[in-house]
Amino acid sequence: MLQITIPAVEQWDEKNEVFITTKAQTLQLEHSLVSLAKWEAKWHVPFMSTKDKTVDQIRDYVKCMTLTQNVNPEVYRFLTVENFKEINDYIEDPHTATWFSDNKKGRQNRVVTAELIYYWMTALQIPFECQKWHLNRLITLIRVCNEEQQPKKKMSKSAIMRQNAALNAARRKKYGTKG
Description:
Layout: E1 2-6, E2 9-13, E3 18-22, E4 25-29, H1 33-43, H2 55-65, H3 81-92, H4 114-123, H5 135-149, H6 157-175
Antiparallel strand pairs: 1-4, 2-3
Helix pairs in contact: 1-2, 1-4
């Protein structure tokens, strides 16, 4: 969970010709499947795509991440550059020590949506309580479960023959025999 503070602000609203004053607000945020699903339900586009998002879409995702109750919606207009950097760093953090040595080609261009992640959770029998985890940690769990369920790769016939030849040669050498 990330905790940020949006500073108190006083600004002139040219449209309504009034001063807008907001108090400093501390928000608790969580980048989770729940926040992703809320955002995608509103905007009807995949959040995890490589396409740039508008400022309104980014602010709205921060609203979807917010766990703090009864937040004045005007507060989100006053997020600072530092707030956005902190939020982005939090979203990008893997939140796990697990890493993968391979980088499977072809999967990088796949559009991942909340429904696809829910499907993976269902298919891999991951409990729905995990939807509130940091999204990167949940994706890592999904990947670990998927890899652990894959059948182990069988050796090719030529690889088996090479292995057997090497074992036989080692045994002949160890016992001093010719075959």
